[in-house]
Amino acid sequence: MSIFNLNKGKKEDKQVGVIFETTDYDKFSLSSINRKIDYGHVERLKKDMRERFIRTNLIVDKQFTILDGQHRFEAMRSLNIPVTYTIVTPENFQTEIITMNTNTKNWNNDDLLDLYLKNERKSNPYDYFDMPYHMFNHARKYKIHFMNLIELAYSSRKKEHTIAFKKGNFFIQDKETFKENVNFLVKAMNQHKVCKHRMTQLVLCKYLLNKNFDKKTFLDKLEKFPDKLVHSSTMDQALLNIKNLHNYFNKKTKLI
Q1: What angle do CA 99, 103, 108 make, to 5 degrees?
Q2: Does the pLDDT at position 231 exceed 50?
Q3: Which of 163, 171, 236, 250 lies 20 to 30 angstroms, CA to CA, from 42?
Q4: pTM, entire model
């Protein structure tokens, strides 16, 4: 009896392909009609493979031209990791490559957030609401942009912080300050529609790191002089608009 026929009375699983393994990297070739190799992505794959390698098969044709998995192949070749592959016979080589690439849906930030929310609820069933991903999610519900929340959490938007978020290692340096700053942004958004724009939010996050920026003063000015704040299409203009509003008839704290 086949090892797959574990339940009596049920159909036996059918073998539909064979997986091969090799370190003969020279037998493979890249397709000229596939996307160009993104070597930054290859380096990220190599880093992940060093930390935890999960084997996934390349898809190749009979000439060992790679239809799917060219970035994984480059990373495994560089690390001298044996390649596993499955051979297929495509009816239309170009169509197969396009279909494989367009039908693949990568996890986005919100997909990952949902996963880590479940993990926090499971590991902290009674106080998960005060865990980093739950605090992040609560702020996201108010339409604060992902990268702006990263900046509020770390006082920086370095790539290493987004990588930490995606790998489940997200944390908030100062939870109370994070809450205060999120509340400030929500109030500003409720007072003025321009504050809902990504660029204005970004600039406000930058100014929150400035010791001379007074949140109460800004909200008061925003309420009294709403026409002073207009939509900005550039970072420089947004910085100037926020500074001018904050400094307007303000003798106590000045932004320079």
Answers
A1: 145
A2: yes
A3: 171
A4: 0.69
